[in-house]
Amino acid sequence: MIYAYIRKSTEKQVFSHMKYEIKQYTIQNGIIIDKWIEESISSRKPLNKRELGLLLEELSPNDILITTEISRLGRSILEVMSILQTCLNKNCQVITIKEHYHLGNDIQSKVLAFAFGLSAEIERNLISQRTKAALTSKKAEGVKLGRPMEAKSRELKLSKNIRRVQDLLNKGLSKAAISRTLNVRRQTLHRFIKRMELDNQNIIQTV
């Protein structure tokens, strides 16, 4: 079996782009995908709660797992190594398109797997350190982090008019019309209504 695995963890990422990359690779190399596995979930989620975890259990000797890049498999070096080790122990191949890795059950592949897993972990740590350093620098410069006070004041305004918002919704007014009536941004109103719906759900569940 030849499996293609696609994972997106942010709204900015799209399946179509990753699927296109894999399709182009398979066409160029005369490969036919037997099964596609797609999931929208953070790699921080436990492996047993991801579709990839179920796929690893299904793998049989000589199966091939294709993905766009190694970071799609896991976020930490231990998880990446564990996933690759599982594949190699089952005598399966792992192909990553962007890095041009073609890993099999041989010592060279195992050494390479450790090397790029370690490199990915170091890169993530460096990004995290740079982000923290940038935030610390902004705080030192007096820059206020978080949502602007103006946005918070608009949400507070909606909170004080929650009954009116509900009445307008019941009357069938669109969110655009309600936002104009209350002089708030549509995004702010959308977030407020969504939070209001969640609160109602929690109340129902509690009762």
Describe the main β-sheet briefly. Answer: 5 strands, mixed
Number of H/I helices: 8
End-to-end Cα distance, whole Å, is 49 Å
Helix/strand/pairing category: alpha/beta
Strand % is: 5-15%
In one word, what is the shape? elongated
Largest beta sheet: what is the strand line-up? 2-1-3-4-5
State the order of secondary-structure elements, H for helix, E for strand. EHEHEHEEHHHHH
Fraction of residues in H or I helices: 55-70%
What gyration radius follows from the Cα positions, in whole Å?
24 Å
Mean pLDDT: 78
Count the beta strands: 5
Report on the structure:
This protein has 207 residues and is an alpha/beta fold. Helices cover 58% and strands 12% of the residues. The protein contains 8 helices and 5 strands, in the order βαβαβαββααααα. A 5-stranded mixed sheet has the order 2-1-3-4-5, sandwiched between helices. A hairpin with a 4-residue loop joins strand 4 (93-96) and strand 5 (101-103). 17% of the residues are buried. Residues 198-207 have low confidence and may be disordered.
